[in-house]
Amino acid sequence: MIRVLVINAFLFALPFALTWIWVRFIAAKQPDAQTRKYYAVAAVAGLVLVVASLVSYRAGTGHATGETYVPPSYQDGQIVPGRFE
Predict the structure, then answer these.
(1) pLDDT score, position 67
(2) Does the reported pTM lie above 0.85?
(3) Number of CB atoms found within 10 A of residue 75's CB
(4) Gap between the Cα atoms of 44 and 50, Å rounded
(5) Residue 84's pLDDT is what?
(6) Are both 42 and 5 inside the same structural domain?
(7) Are 26 and 64 contained in the same domain?
(8) How far is CA 33 from its chain centroid?
(9) For the chain, how many structural domains are there in total?
């Protein structure tokens, strides 16, 4: 249980830590306007790639609508994996 809590706390804190690192990086480097524009374009491109990967994952792993999920079960001494019927 503690492992689950630690993992969830880490995943919750990760965006805040990355934002703090980013702000410290910008403050230390003092990039000009053109460089900041490149950073912004790279960030937007990364966001678009993340969204595209999530959409493609969802499209590739979905199941037909109207199907019912049958959870894994133990039958005749063997574990039968979960499936959609």
Answers:
(1) 82
(2) no
(3) 8
(4) 10
(5) 84
(6) no
(7) no
(8) 30
(9) 2
DSSP state of 66: T
Residue 72: the pLDDT is 95
50, 26: one domain: no
Rounded Cα gap, residues 43 and 20, in angstroms: 16
CB-based contact 48:41 (threshold 8 Å): no
Residue 78, token pair as written in the block: 């063997």
Contacts of 73 (CB under 8 A, 6+ apart): 79, 80
Residue 58 sits in the same domain as residue 81: yes
> Tens of pLDDT along 25-59?
989 989 899 998 999 999 999 999 999 999 998 88
83: nearest Cα among 74, 67, 42: 67
Q: Look at the chain and count its residues.
A: 85
Eight-state DSSP code of residue 44: H
Q: What angle do CA 20, 49, 26 make, to 5 degrees?
A: 25
Residue 47 DSSP SS3: helix
